[in-house]
Amino acid sequence: MRIRMRMRVAGGLGAAAVGAAMAGAAVVGAAVPAVAAAAGLAYHGYVAMAGGQVDVRLAPQNQGPSDVTDATVRLHWSQPLAAVQRLPEGCARYDVSTVLCDTGPLAAGGVGREIRLRVGLEGTSTEVTLEIDTLWEGGSVDRTPGNDRQQVLALDTGDQYSF
């Protein structure tokens, strides 16, 4: 049996994610199939926009039942980001409107470290939509996909919009 896989890898973050995911893959015809751990990630926080700068604070939560050794959260803005960004440690620019951030380890039923970042938008805008989702869950399987996806509209008022 021939299996075809197609993967898109983002810098060093993606390479580690792909390697870990492949390490836990089941081998066709193996006597004992590998079973991936189950975990459900969710994100809570806020986004605020003022003067073309967007502040994001979020805390990853692992609803279990298994621990997650590491995960990557994807933050995608509806507007292109300015060419130069100062991102916190553990975050990297993926493309013109996306940033990937490492969550670190997440215990089952636990809350991870807060991720804080400020990005500048290219040009002027009165609003931006931020999409938040999980790119990689440390090789775990999410049995409730969708609860890790958020979409938040932020107006350029300085108000905080919770998710």
- N- and C-termini, Cα separation: 44 Å
How big a fraction of the residues is strand? Answer: 35-45%
The run of helices and strands is HEEEEEEEEE
The second-level CATH architecture is: Sandwich
CATH class: Mainly Beta
Major sheet details: 5 strands, antiparallel
Structure overview:
The protein is mainly beta and 163 residues long. The chain has one domain: Immunoglobulins (Immunoglobulin-like). The strands form two sheets. The chain has a five-stranded antiparallel beta sheet, with helices on one face. Strands 6-2-1-9 form a four-stranded antiparallel beta sheet, with no helix packed on it. Strand 4 and strand 5 form a beta hairpin. The protein starts with 10 loop residues before the first helix and ends with a strand. The N terminus is likely disordered.
